[in-house]
Structure formats: C-alpha cells, structure tokens
TrEMBL record:
Origin species: Paraconexibacter antarcticus
PANTHER family: GLUTATHIONE S-TRANSFERASE OMEGA-LIKE 1-RELATED (PTHR32419:SF6), GLUTATHIONYL-HYDROQUINONE REDUCTASE (PTHR32419)
Domain (GST C-terminal) ranges: 159-283
PROSITE patterns given in the database record: GST_CTER
Protein name in UniProt: Glutathione S-transferase family protein
InterPro entries documented for this protein: Glutathione-S-Trfase_C-like, Glutathione-S-Trfase_C_sf, Glutathione_S-Trfase, Glutathione_S-Trfase_N, GST_Omega-like_C, GST_Omega/GSH, Thioredoxin-like_sf
Length: 315
C-alpha cells in the first residue's frame, strides 16, 4: 500500500509521520513582574478554540482559578482552514484589534512567522504582541502567577512538592496520549499508525489501573496533570476513537477512566467549557484528508452527568 500524503508536511519526519511543531513564543508572565510582564488584571487576553484540546486546558484553568474578570477571552470559529488558519466568526469578532484571522496576531508579533497558527494565544495588550502560544506554559502561568487577581487564589493546581512528579507524568501522557491520538490520526502509513496506537493504549491501560487507587492522578486533589489529560479524554469517544482510528477501546469501556472523566466534567464550571458541537465540527469538517465527506456523526450518546462513583476509589 502506498503511504498517503502527510496531513501537515511541515510537521512531518522523513517517513511522513506527524511531528508537532515547537511553540514559537515562550515569554513568561510573573507575579513579581521580574520578567517584564507583570501578572496584573486587564492586561492580557486569551485567544482560544473550544474545539482544541490544548486551548481547552487554558479555558478550564482560567475558569477554576476565577480569572474571568482579570483575563479576557475570545473564541475563534471551530472550522480551521489550512491556508488562513483560525478565523474569527461574525458573531464573535475580535474585540481588541478587529482582526479577521488569528494569524494577524502572529504577524504583528513576528512579521516573518511562517509556521502553523495555533491556540491558545496569550496576548499582551500593552506591548501589542503574543506573550506565549505554548499551552503547557499558559496553564502553568494561569495556575501560579495570577493569584493576586484570581477569584480563587487558594486553589493550587501545581503544588511545589509534586511538581517533579507532575512534570514526569505530563511528559509521558503528552507523548503517548495527548499527542499520541494525533500521531495516529495523521499517520501516513500502517506502521506509523500502529507505532502511535499501541503506546497510546498501553498508557491508557496504566492510567486506568492507577485511578483505581486514587480519585485523581495525584491523590485526592486535582492538579494540572488531570486537566491536561481531561481535554483528551472528553474528546476521545466522540472524535479520536473513530476519526483518528484510536479504536482498540473507548474511554467508556475503562471502569476507572470513565468515572474519572465524569468526575472531572462535573467539577463546578467545567461542563460549561465543553462544547461538543465545536469539537465535532472542527475535526470532522476540517480534516478533509481523513473525512472527505465532512459528515459530522451524531453519536456517540454520552451521559457525562451520570454518577461517577469516584468519592473513595480503592476503598
């Protein structure tokens, strides 16, 4: 069988396998302002897609920390074009600069930018440039640097004593799960597909066992590790299982992972950040090399409000 053309030629290795681009903008906002970017209310703005799992993390952490009044947010249209990238819908225009496409933020920051425009984007309204477009950095900053202006400054999603362990687990989950579903979905060959799918399910199997022993990934408290995993899990059965052919098992077939997913979903404020219409239309309509008919499936039926039974796992 002839391997198909890579979905993202600029983000492919010599075999055509998907290799995600590195984020370009990695400046830091700090509580004390030592970076030159102080964590003050009203200065920063988040551009996100509700369809994108990487941006969804930022939406959730902003909500949990109570930063809605301190950091503005604009949602782009879920249908992304390969030529122009993310665009602003007529009903949700860019409130700051009147842009039509998010790439205009990239060009304003670096006129020579020629990579793929990604979300989330943390924008600085004072300097008129992108601070950071790496989701891992953005959620860490939201979780740790904005306590002075947060509605819930006591919520610690990145406790100092656990950071090394959280970072180690995040690295594993990123490689095999968060990015693993994309490596499977965009695989140009059977070999590349299997090289992604087998580690993906090996990690999911391990996480299911881990979650029989504790309510969350690190005991009885939520951390950034949980929310980085959640945004993949909540899309899995509706998108990745079928669209990306990650179909050895559904999340609903994992006893611990499925309850854990519902537990996180039922955290106050989180369900309102999950827009399954945006999610499904983005993947099934945008990725025409995978789904040329652009038909958006109606299923699966999921009841994420069902009792999760996670109050005392392992008890």
């Amino acid at each position: 069988m002839t391997p198909r053309t890579a979905a993202f030629p600029k983000e492919s290795d010599d075999t055509g396998a998907f290799v995600r681009q590195d984020s370009t903008f990695r400046d830091r906002v700090t509580a004390d302002g030592s970076s030159g970017l102080p964590a003050v209310a009203g200065r920063y703005h988040l551009y996100v897609s509700l369809a994108c799992p990487w941006a969804h993390r930022a939406v959730i952490v902003r909500r949990l920390k109570g930063l809605e009044d301190a950091i503005g947010l604009t949602v782009v249209d879920p249908i992304r074009d390969d030529e122009t990238g993310w665009r602003f819908a007529e009903e949700r225009p860019d409130p700051l600069n009147g842009w039509t496409f998010l790439k205009e933020a990239y060009e304003a920051t670096d006129p020579g930018f020629d990579g793929r425009v990604s979300v989330p984007v943390l924008w600085d309204t004072v300097t008129g440039r992108i601070v950071n477009n790496e989701s891992a950095d953005v959620i860490e900053m939201l979780a740790t640097e904005f306590d002075e202006v947060a509605g819930d400054p006591d919520l610690d999603l990145y406790p100092a004593a656990l950071r090394d362990d959280i970072d180690a687990l995040n690295a594993r989950v990123y490689e095999t799960v968060n990015n693993g579903v994309y490596r499977a979905g965009f695989a140009p060959s059977q070999e590349a597909y299997e090289d992604a799918v087998m580690p993906l399910f090996a990690t999911l199997d391990e996480l299911d066992v881990r979650l029989t022993r504790s309510r969350f990934l690190f005991g009885d408290r939520q951390t950034l590790a949980d929310w980085r995993l959640f945004t993949t899990l909540v899309r899995f059965d509706a998108v990745y299982h079928g669209h990306f052919k990650c179909n050895l098992r559904k999340i609903s077939e994992y006893p611990a992972l499925s309850g854990y997913l519902r537990d996180l979903y039922q955290t106050p404020g989180v369900a309102q950040t999950v827009d399954m219409d945006h999610i499904k239309r983005h993947y099934y309509v945008t990725h025409t090399s995978i789904n040329p008919t652009q038909i958006v499936p109606l299923g699966p039926l999921q009841d994420l409000h069902a009792p999760h039974g996670r109050e005392a796992p392992g008890a």
